[in-house]
Amino acid sequence: MSKRSTSPQKDGVAASVHRVFQKDPPPEPGGTKQFEDRKVGLGKKVTLLRGISIIIGTIIGAGIFISPKGILKHSGSIGMSLVVWIACGVLSLFGALSYAELGTCIKKSGGHYTYILEAFGPQMAFIRLWADLIAIRPAAMAVISLAFGQYILEPLFMPCDIPPMAVKLATAIGITSVMYLNSMSVTWTARIQIILTFSKLLAISIIIVPGMYQLFKGETRNFENAFELSNMKLSGMPLAFYSGMYAYAGWFYLNFVTEEVDNPERTMPLAICISMAIVTSCYVLTNVAYYTVMTAEELLASEAVAVTFAEKLMGNFSIVVPFFVALSCYGSMNGGVFALSRMIFVASREGQLPEVLSMIHVRRHTPLAAVIILYPMTMLQVFVGDIYSLLNFMSFLRWLFIGVVVLALIYLRYIKPDLPRPFKVPLFIPVVFCLTCFFMVFLSLYSDPVNTGIGFAISLTGIPAYYIFIIFNHRPKWLQSALDSFNRTLQIILVVVPAE
């Protein structure tokens, strides 16, 4: 990670490698168009439908099928749990609308990183980037990938336990296929994401439709005294909201690919509003469907709620549920890699990561290096380390930095009042959401100070890293020459050139 250099030597390296791949093809009959006339860059291939599929496909992972019991446990009653699901959907919509304003006035990809960079400068942006790269994103990707490996194999091993190594091997195959898809084609990545999103909605409809049928038949006994408050504790409600907000996380991923969105001023707000309406409706109706078949006690005792629901209502057909859960996880993996590679691409373009990570494959027009860099880090987390504890003490950082991003929106309104804002939300929306984020951060500090403190310490290592890798740039000539040579070799191997 070196500061972006403007030296003639480094420019010469990039230019010479660029020329390697810009050789003229044989002349076309009747035409003189040369290959070098074509621009190498990321096209605007994210339409409204693809934008919706990125958001829905990334938000809906394994959680709604496996374990919605965290909200029920902490809210104390069926009625209050449904209220929490709705409230978390509204709060997530507030956050998504705030990001829509940022995405339409700052038309750069990169999501959180870009907005913190624009409002608070490169050091704060680098700390966010550092925490993302060394822990948060690889661990989060590994967790959803392991869920994919577990559920894709479950129908093959029922009723026996799946060997842990088999799960890890299936996980590795899933991660490899996602990385390959994202490396080869933006168009096919988006198309597969649309297919996977529809498969998720089909899986949810398989739960909702029979559940609503049971409800209309009069199966309402589990909803009697739904708002019985004897088990509710005020101290548990913040934890219920924390679980709910985690289930909705992912609404910000479209902002990671802003530069590839067709007509972002219209597409981003529409995609966000439509997606959040669909997700909130699906989550609430799915939970209502669960309660038509299961009591609160049965739901709390279940390890995989959707499987238990299907076994009670559909018999042998329940064997397909793990397959749909696996597809849902795969969609989250695909959307996550697609979005996160763009954050790495932008950080490299800003000079805070190696320059080769901001280069584009000359034929595929994908950020190949930025995609591949995620691969070893994720695989390492799959095969070594305690991923779940890592997520526990890093999860509060997600809401801390999201709160900082929405605070940046308010700050930019103050310091740049004349900045064009094609889409502008009422001020109370970012204020309410920002306060919610910081409240959840405070709750983490109060309820689990040790793990939260470790996560905070990991993020603070970004401060010395910033000065070592970004500020200090007086390297010996032999070391700079070696780095340039390595950069050029990697460019040739990956067949990538700077974007035009």
Rounded mean pLDDT score: 82
Strand content: under 5%
- How many DSSP H or I helices? 21
Shape: globular
Q: Distance between termini?
A: 22 Å
Helix content: over 70%
Q: Please give the number of β-strands.
A: 2
Sheet with the most strands: spatial strand order: 1-2
Q: Summarize the helix and strand pattern as letters.
A: HHHHHHHHHHHHHHEHHHHHHHE
Spans of at least 5 consecutive residues whose pLDDT stays below 50 are 2-37
Structural category:
mainly alpha
Secondary-structure map:
Layout: H1 8-20, H2 48-59, H3 63-66, H4 69-75, H5 78-105, H6 112-120, H7 122-157, H8 164-184, H9 186-216, H10 237-248, H11 264-293, H12 296-301, H13 305-314, H14 321-349, E1 359-361, H15 368-372, H16 374-383, H17 387-415, H18 428-447, H19 449-460, H20 462-471, H21 477-494, E2 496-498
Antiparallel strand pairs: 1-2
Describe this structure in words.
With 500 residues, the chain is mainly alpha-helical. The chain is 70% helix and 1% strand. The chain has a two-stranded antiparallel ribbon with strand order 1-2. The protein is globular and about 75 Å long. The protein starts with 7 loop residues before the first helix and ends with a strand.
